Amino acid sequence: CDNTVCDVEADLNHCCDAAMPCTNLTCPDNYVHRPDTYCSLAAYKTNACTLETDKDMCCTRGMALLYYRFKIWSTKSSDEYMTQLSELNLYFFNDYVVGSKTTTGGTAWSLNGNYPGKESPIQAIDEDVETKWLDEDPDPRKNRRGEAYAFMALTVQLPTSA
Question: What confidence tens digit (pLDDT) does each residue in 22-36 have?
Fold first, then answer.
């Protein structure tokens, strides 16, 4: 690799010095790591990863949340009193959010939701398009204020180690 300009995609961890992964850098408050990124200096160098030089490459604005709420505000028709969802997918930089599926430790619920046992909130994140979460209002009529009854929200909780 002497006198060779390294191409990050082609040469990382091959002939050039291995770069320090951004996960070795502590992002500031209200920032999260960008996935699969590397600091600007080789891993063996002193201060290979610093906020001064690598924050924009390694970190992006955001917060590492543990709970995501999906709320259905309306349906096609005001006469509709049921709503269903086969799969809710959470993405961050074009990748699934780790822990957002039951297979990776996620869980889901609908507080005060009205759903049959075989169509529970957990079915919305089970990676099976043949299952679904169904919420049905017990009464399709309007409430005393003339508003349609509200559908309950689906909450997805990620494991704390994700």
Answer: 888 999 988 888 888
User: In this structure, what token pair is assigned to residue 39?
Assistant: 């600091």
Is residue 122 within 8 A of residue 108, CB to CB? The reply is yes
Six token digits for residue 13? 């961890």
CB atoms within 10 A of CB 144: 5
Q: Report which of residues 50 and 72 the model is more confident about.
A: 50
In this prediction the pTM is 0.66
CA distances from 50 to 12, 39, 99 (A): 19, 8, 29
Task: Report residue 114 CA to chain centroid gap.
Answer: 25
**What Cα–Cα distance (Å) separates residue 12 from each residue in 1, 38, 127, 159, 160?**
12, 10, 33, 31, 31
Q: Cβ of 14: how many Cβ atoms within 10 Å? A: 10
